[in-house]
Amino acid sequence: MSPRILARIGLFLGIWGLFLGMTLAADKTDPKKSPYVTVRQVQGELEKFEKSGQLTVKAYVGAAGGRNRMPRTEKMTFQVSPETVIRTHVLPPKPSDNPNKPARYTREELKKLKGPNPRLPGYEAKAEDLRGGLIVMIELGQTKEEIKEKSIDYKVKSIMILGEQMGK
Fold this sequence. Notes:
CATH 2.40.50.320; seven-stranded mixed beta sheet; 7 strands; 34% strand
């Protein structure tokens, strides 16, 4: 066989193996898996988070009027439940003895920061880490029964802290 045909066969088998691996990984049941199915994602600036679990976000809802327009924002309020997963993409700086050279995290420290479920993106965070001025991605979910009933009652499934608002 020619090298070109062998390369195509290898590419096909590699893609098929990747797909099969992702399918097998998705089939594993996770006891800590949320009962909610992700219905919608909202990204925006966190305005305030109250101790009662009330979350106010200035969400980006798209550009008004077409090309070269500023994105519109809309104020949305959500209620956070105790089973809401809070994660962060931004790691706190590690304390260093030398102020000119920042310290790096070891693999073990990063694994510990991932938390009990390392398959989730980002690192574990707490509700105390939520404050005004952060850019967040909020996943809203519903149970399968609520989807069948066509309910518009969304639950906050997870909050991902993406970073700080620039210029503030």
